[in-house]
Amino acid sequence: MDFVGQIDRALEEDRFILDCQKIAHVDEDSGEHAHYEILPTLLDENGESMPP
Model pTM greater than 0.70? Predict the structure, then answer.
């Protein structure tokens, strides 16, 4: 339950950022378009990103 409180405070203090990560193709010569995943990241009180 402590982590729920941390999430609430982070939302109130605008401490979420979005990170973008490219998804690599196994076959780089496949000709497919690049794909990315968007990852929400929570920053702690010191501005450091917290692990997932």
Answer: no
